[in-house]
Amino acid sequence: MDITVFGGTGTVGSALVDILRTEGANVRVVTRFAEKADRFGDGVAGFVADMDQPETLVPALKNVDGVFLLAANSPQETQQSLSALWPIVDAKPKRLIYMSSLLSTLAPLVPHAGVKIGVEAAIRTSGIDYTTLRPSYFAQNDLILKDALMGGVYPVPFGHTHVARVDTRDVARAAATALLEGKGRNQSITVSSPDQPNGEEAADLWSGALARPIAYPDMTPDAWANMAPPEMPKWLVFDLTVMYRYLGTQGAAVTEADLEAQATLLPDGPRRYPDFVDECARAWRG
């Protein structure tokens, strides 16, 4: 199969590219940066293109069998996603996999979640066989907390609600199954582990794995925003503050029905969040 991957240099996309290459697919990765386009190995071709210029996407979509569409969080995400859909629809791939978010249905007031609703609707009317993936909160988000965790703090304003976690490698694996095997056709599927700890429980997991006390400061979203790195764009600080306000009061849980439905794409089951924590802790200690 010839498969085009948007977002192929990111966390989920790069894992997907590796799986597709291993499975023998011919992979095309769309990137805005020429220096990245030349870094892929055998079985992967880089295409320099820009979602803000939809005409530049056409060469990467010629005679393509499948497309994975991931648009980076940004104030332009809706415009870029919908603009990319036009050349995708014209290319008539057999399958389109779109990465949305669990929060798109739970918390559409969160900017980076709500923008995906319109894209999902557009895809449903496109006439292309699609699968929409709605991953829960990424376990890998904890990686940016390494310094804080090694210093004894889990500084995420989840409050005391339960937030489901997913390993990004499982999101990639689910996308690969949908692309290569056509499973999950015309469905929107939540992708998650069954683990949904609150802030204190997550801190306890890290404490056990790192063999040191890890405190959960139970900070407010506004307090988190005041501590955000100065280099973080203001729009992103606002976006994440709104997200944490929602998660801190409502949480983001998954149901047994969600987990049963995702077995179509993850027949061996998802990775567990405690195992992810242990894996990271071993690497950091080593």
Descriptive report:
- 45% of the residues lie in helices and 14% in strands.
- The model has no long low-confidence stretch (mean pLDDT 95).
- With 286 residues, it is of the alpha/beta class.
- The strands form 2 sheets. The protein has a 7-stranded parallel β-sheet with strand order 3-2-1-4-5-6-9, sandwiched between helices. The chain has a two-stranded parallel ribbon with strand order 7-8.
- Helix 4 (77-91) packs parallel to helix 6 and helix 10 runs antiparallel to helix 11 (234-250).
- It has helices at residues 11-22, 34-37, 58-61, 77-91, 103-106, 111-124, 146-150, 168-181, 199-210, 221-227, 234-250, 256-262, 273-285, and strands at residues 2-6, 26-31, 44-48, 66-69, 95-99, 130-135, 137-138, 165-166, 187-191.
How do the helices and strands line up, and which of them pair or pack?
Layout: E1 2-6, H1 11-22, E2 26-31, H2 34-37, E3 44-48, H3 58-61, E4 66-69, H4 77-91, E5 95-99, H5 103-106, H6 111-124, E6 130-135, E7 137-138, H7 146-150, E8 165-166, H8 168-181, E9 187-191, H9 199-210, H10 221-227, H11 234-250, H12 256-262, H13 273-285
Parallel strand pairs: 1-2, 1-4, 2-3, 4-5, 5-6, 6-9, 7-8
